[in-house]
Structures are given as structure tokens and as C-alpha cells.
Specification:
rRNA (pseudouridine-N3-)-methyltransferase activity, alpha/beta, 41% helix, 5 helices, globular, transferase, Alpha/beta knot, rRNA processing, 145 residues
Length: 145
Amino acid sequence: MLNPSRYRILAIGKTRKAWIQNGLNLYIKRLPGLTITELKDSDLKKEAQSIRSSIKTNELLIILTEEGESLTSLGFANRLKSLGSSRLLFVIGSANGLDSEIKAMANWSISLSPLTFPHEIARLLLIEQLYRAKNICEGGSYHRN
């Protein structure tokens, strides 16, 4: 079973749109223990420094990038399940992306879609997929094949 209290989302910039924040709040309630931390947006080097200082030594670094691995929802759920009790840190960069140093540090790089989304929406998509993955692993009815 997936344990959201072992997951953190680190995002550059603020969530400014109320409807996105409402969606995030809905899934945060469904995923007790999951936290989202927002870091100030800046230039890539300063953002990389903020990200590096936020990574805990026992966390696997998972970044969201255009170049990342593309998965189905079932594939994502199975991959998370295979990581077992690992602590996971999902990082969503700013509109400028992520510094190459952070990309090189990543344990796993994923892409939510070949389409480009505002970074606020990427947060909502990620948290929804985390909820969906948890539901898939628990045999719930949220995900339909």
C-alpha cells in the first residue's frame, strides 16, 4: 500500500489561482500526511540551491520534466509500489524548468504529459495522480480501466 506521509512535493513559486488551490486542498485531504512546500522563484542557480537544501538525506529525488519517463496511471502506481517504504521528494521546477545539477541528482525523472502546462496545474496533476495511484494499489473504484 502507498503511504502518502512518506511523500513530499517541492514546488517553485506560489499557487495563485484559487481554483487550483481548491483542487490541491481536496487531494491533500484525501492523502493525509502529504505535504507541499513552495519555494520562492528566482534564477535557476538560486532555485537549485533552495532545492538542494530542502532534500533530506533519506529521500529519493523525483523530478518532473518534459524529458522524463512517460507512464500510464497504472505504470505510475506500480512504480511507486515498487519503491516500497522509500521516502519520496517530488520536485516541480519553475517556468524556467530545473537546473542541470538538479536533473543530474534525480533518482527518477517523470513527465506528466508531452503537453506543456503551467506549473500550478502540474502540481494539481501530480497530486491527483498520487491519489489515483494509492487508489489503484488499494483496489479502490476511483480509477477505471
